[in-house]
Amino acid sequence: MTYDERLAGRVRDLLSGQVEAEKKMFGGLAFMVEGRMACCVSGQGLLVKVGHDAFPELVRLDHVEPMTMRDEVSDSWVNVGDDALIDERALRLWVDRGLAANPPKPRS
Q1: What's the CA angle centered on 79, arms 77 and 85, to 5 degrees?
Q2: How many CB atoms lie within 10 A of CB 65?
Q3: Could you tell me the strand order of the sheet in which 64-69 lies?
């Protein structure tokens, strides 16, 4: 399954000037900011690292489910469906969650 080009464009616009690289991973397109993944656009929606602590609360939200990869169910990553990304404010909230849960790597 290929990633959603429209959603990738929305993320690209949202992170304009901040994206260091776009990398293909998780079967989608990951957006790298300050050496960390902000999020990953897949064919199923937006993959976001939310961390172990926030995970139980967030997977209870509508259109949010645990990320599953090769029969492995994550307890720190979520798949956010399109219906939860209805406007740029909602998209920004999820991308910001991903950045907060994935702190910058120390620079050498």
Answers
A1: 125
A2: 16
A3: 21-25, 28-33, 36-42, 45-49, 72-80, 64-69
